[in-house]
Amino acid sequence: GGIFHGDPHCANILVQNNSLVWIDLGLAGCITERERSFFKRGMKAFVFSDADELANVLLEMCSAPEPPDRGNMLRVIESAMEKLRGQSLKSLNIQELLRQFMSMARENGITMPQNVAVLTRSTAVFAGTLQTVCDSIDPVSILVQVINTIKGDSVE
After folding, report:
1. Inter-residue contact 98 to 124 (CB < 8 Å)
2. What are residue 63's DSSP bridge partners?
3. Contact call for residues 84 and 97 (beta carbons, < 8 A)
4. Using the 8-state DSSP alphabet, how is residue 8 labeled?
5. Are 131 and 139 in contact (CB under 8 A)?
6. Do the Cβ atoms of 54 and 75 come closer than 8 Å?
7. Local structure of 35: helix, strand or coil
């Protein structure tokens, strides 16, 4: 598993000796190896616009009172991803995109494991923080690097 900072906004990050230092760990989380694998697969599918894999991850990882309509989920995911096509990676608003995917999950009665939901939110907040701190930073490239640090296959 692993521990993560649940609220990585500008006021909770310091830079010392060219390294990030996290402060205010009032909102931190811990994920299991299984949740880590789901998160990595989901982020990889998101970064590479693989709607089918993202739907698979959501359905495998999440619980719902009734079986979700996979076709509807796939249409919503594909529609969101279609809006991304042709945009430069730097112009993407990762925070808004992740918020849309979380909303789609809720609309389909899908409940994510709490720690995965917090980690997903934290990732979006951190991406927004990076863009705020330095507009020359490409959060998608950084997300790919983060995914590569998680155990498993590398993302190219």
Report:
1. yes
2. 111
3. yes
4. -
5. yes
6. no
7. helix
Tens-place pLDDT, residues 82-107: 776 666 555 666 667 777 777 777 77
pLDDT of 143: 67
Rounded CA-CA distance 3/32 in Å is 9
pLDDT tens column, 124-155: 777 777 777 777 777 667 767 766 665 455 54
Q: Which helix (H) or strand (E) holds 52?
A: helix 51-61
CB atoms within 10 A of CB 137: 15
- Reported as type and span, the H/E element at residue 109 is none
Is pLDDT larger for residue 45 or for residue 105?
Answer: 45
Paired tokens of 99: 């918020």
User: In the chain, which ranges are E strands?
Assistant: 2-5, 13-16, 19-22, 28-31
Q: What ranges in 94-138 are assigned the alpha helix state H?
A: 94-107, 114-133
pTM of the predicted protein model: 0.70
